[in-house]
Amino acid sequence: MKYWLMKSEPDVYGIDHLKAKGKPDIWEGCRNYTVRNFMRDQMQPGDKALFYHSNAKPSGVVGIMRITSEGYPDPHQFDPKSKYYDAKSPQDNPRWLAVDVEHVETFNRVIPLSELKETPGLQDMAVVQRGQRLSVMPVTEAEWEIVLELAKKSL
DNA sequence: GCCAACGTTGGC
DNA sequence: GCCAACGTTGGC
Fold this sequence. Notes:
- The chain is α+β, with helices and mostly antiparallel strands.
- The chain contains 5 helices and 7 strands; from the N terminus they run βααβαββββαβα.
- The model has no long low-confidence stretch (mean pLDDT 92).
């Protein structure tokens, strides 16, 4: 089982949206080849992911979800009315993938990016690296454990 | 709203 | 295949 961190803007789709869904929902709209390759080659049902709110006040980790599907073609790439439409993606060889995720837990607090940056053991975590813009990135088991400990801590 | 970082596109 | 221009992300 692998661990991930997945970013979304809470104004667009936050952890409350996923929780309210009450069942697996599609994680759609990833339009980056590195992320596509993660979904194609590495993500498996049962993997767990940190839900990260970006462009938020503050930005940070807000909870946990579970991956419930393998990567499959993101239907929005074929929908001309969708903002995720990609006219260059062949129907028979889809360029973009999505996965299904389900809500597991919402933390009692947001763990802000600034706190991740100052926490010993997380200095190599992908999300704290300068210029790191991937919306999906791997998390090591050690980093996962540390973040879960932070989540338990009250301020 | 600014702007640094960096992925993607397209001219050559 | 290089690389400049452009677009997007996302912290601040």
